[in-house]
Design a protein that fits this description.
By secondary structure, the chain is an alpha+beta fold. The protein has two domains: 141 residues, PAS domain (Beta-Lactamase, 2-Layer Sandwich); 159 residues, Alpha-Beta Plaits. 46% of the residues lie in helices and 22% in strands. The protein has eleven helices and twelve strands. A five-stranded antiparallel β-sheet has the order 2-1-5-4-3. The chain has a five-stranded mixed β-sheet with strand order 7-8-6-11-12, with helices on both faces. Strand 4 and strand 5 form a beta hairpin. The termini are far apart. It comes from Pseudomonas lutea.
């Protein structure tokens, strides 16, 4: 009677294994397949009788064989389960995604568990590999992360120019000043504004003025390095923080920027509009109480450019 019960229990177990919506594969020491459930058949396109006694790696040649063998061998040697999660490894075997909601994904995201299987004598003879489809969870998480990144970008970006807003670049300047105080590094700040900008607005309208600001911002992007922090100060005023640069390097950058803006053509309703900028440069070499002192010095140099005829670069003289 007990043998009959054991047979029934085994039959039920096999039925459950075939019916559950996870992949179940049992491998021996030679990594050959002994169990291959319906999930695996449907996702891989390989029927169980064709998978039986074949190497798991021959069925999925794209696998990182060395990595997975080490994982399986560790489970067999230590007798403890092992796991993989989609955040670290998006999938173990590449299956297409069949989720009706998340069908835009190219593949099925997977979590996996490797379980040691013991014989009746207690010896580990096989490993059970369980593959979970977590595509919907992964997609939701990735979409949330993307949304958070976009919100972070929006919170630090000026909407008109797509440069950094004042809050972001000023915080970057504060951190750069703290780095200067601790390590003695240098940084230059270039501040500039568009000459006679009110005349552009009054003559052509605010939409045209916005277009001029946007095109000047484009020029700034073209001339800055990845490490530079370019932002809008407000209105037609801009600031560019140049890490690891002194005021002489800042002046060279400012002159290139000035010449590029002077050569810029901004088209508005078929008419070409030209503009110039006035720039001021200061650096952190001179003693200063805090980062705001650098803004004041660069702003004073900018004022000197405007006072001396505009469309020029002036450098702070403090040592």
């Amino acid at each position: 009677m007990s043998d009959l019960i054991d047979f029934k229990e085994l039959h039920w177990l096999l039925t459950v294994t075939q019916s559950i919506d996870v992949g179940v594969v049992v491998l021996d020491h030679a990594y050959q397949v002994h169990v291959w459930n319906t999930f695996m058949e449907n996702r891989s396109g390989v029927l169980s009788y064709k998978a039986a006694n074949r190497s798991f790696f021959s069925l999925f040649p794209e696998l990182n064989e060395r990595w997975l063998k080490n994982k399986i061998d560790s489970v067999m040697t230590l007798g403890t389960p092992a796991f993989t999660i989609w955040e670290q490894r998006p999938y173990l075997v590449r299956f297409p995604s069949y989720q009706p909601i998340t069908g835009q994904e190219e593949f099925m995201y997977q979590n996996t568990t490797l379980l040691p299987l013991r014989s009746t004598t207690g010896v580990i003879t096989h490993v059970c590999l369980v593959i979970y489809d977590v595509t919907e969870v992964a997609t939701n998480r990735l979409q949330l992360q993307a949304a958070n990144r976009e919100l972070q970008k929006l919170s630090s970006t000026d909407r008109l120019t797509s440069l950094y807003n004042r809050g972001h670049w000023e915080e970057a300047l504060r951190l750069e000043h703290a780095r200067h105080v601790r390590y003695g590094t240098s940084a230059a700040l270039v501040m500039f504004d568009i000459d006679h900008f009110k005349r552009v607005n009054d003559t052509y309208g605010h939409q045209c003025g916005d277009r001029v600001i946007q095109r000047v911002a484009d020029v700034v992007r073209e001339h800055t390095r990845d490490a530079d922090i370019a932002g809008r100060y407000g209105g037609e005023e801009f600031a560019v923080l140049l890490p690891d640069t002194d005021k002489h390097g800042g002046a060279m950058f400012a002159e290139r920027l000035r010449a590029a803006v002077e050569a810029l053509d901004v088209m508005h309703e078929g008419e070409s509009i030209r503009c110039t900028i006035s720039l001021g440069v200061a650096d952190m070499i001179a003693p200063m109480d805090d980062y705001k002192t650098l803004i004041e010095r660069a702003d004073q140099a900018l004022y000197a450019s405007k006072k001396n005829g505009r469309n020029r670069v002036s450098v702070d003289e403090a040592d």
